[in-house]
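Archive transcription. Copying these from loose printouts into the bound notebook so they stop getting lost. Printout 1 of 2:
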Amino acid sequence: MFFLCSEALGSARQDQDAAAIDNYIARQARRERAEEYREARKVVVGDLTHDGVPETVVLYTIEGQGGTNLHIQYLAVFSRQKGKLSAVTHADVGGKSARSVELRSVEDNAILLDTMGYGPKDAQCCPSVKGATRYVLSDGRLREQKKGASQGRHN
């Protein structure tokens, strides 16, 4: 009986968390006159604030801004406030003509990302330079630690 009850509570919390993330991204997409490419969303959980309490990190893509073929990848951090997820901050971390990023994990109080940057002969569709970068949460903002980061177009 206890197992079923705790499982139902866990499921309800997951549903609430998903709804909070969905609402946050939908509001941003409306502001940009665009929509989320939902299939590209990735969520990981880990401690970014050295307090032993995990934050939720979301990599998501918003595309079609104002009817264009632009897409921007964002990283958002959510913390749990009174049992519910609440957005802390977000930052743009990649996108068309910048770089492509994949969320790998949260380790050692940092968000680890694999990147694909642009080489001198790469077309806008196809970055080919592999790299990695990391973001830390500092004073309520995401800050990239540049060592090993692929930095946008190189041509």
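Printout 2 of 2:
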Amino acid sequence: MAAPRGLPRLRVAMLVAAACGLSALGLTLAGRFLVGGTIHAIAQASQGAQVSLTPLGRLVGEPDFGPLSRAVIGTGEGALFGFGLAAGLTRRPFF
């Protein structure tokens, strides 16, 4: 099977993670919500919801889940997705 092993596999996964993270950052900066932003928007729209990402906004110095928080969370989401995707697609099955 044509799939990298060892360090080349990790390098591929890191490159895909970086590309997906940058793409997610671009989407976030364009005003699109990713998973974190969607969860926060649903929680804000629901009365009595106990889920909120406002504390994550405070970690980066914002009073609420603002644009910087969305960018940081979105970039992380994209990078983790890309890493998992590349690691899964380059996995060699055990026969």
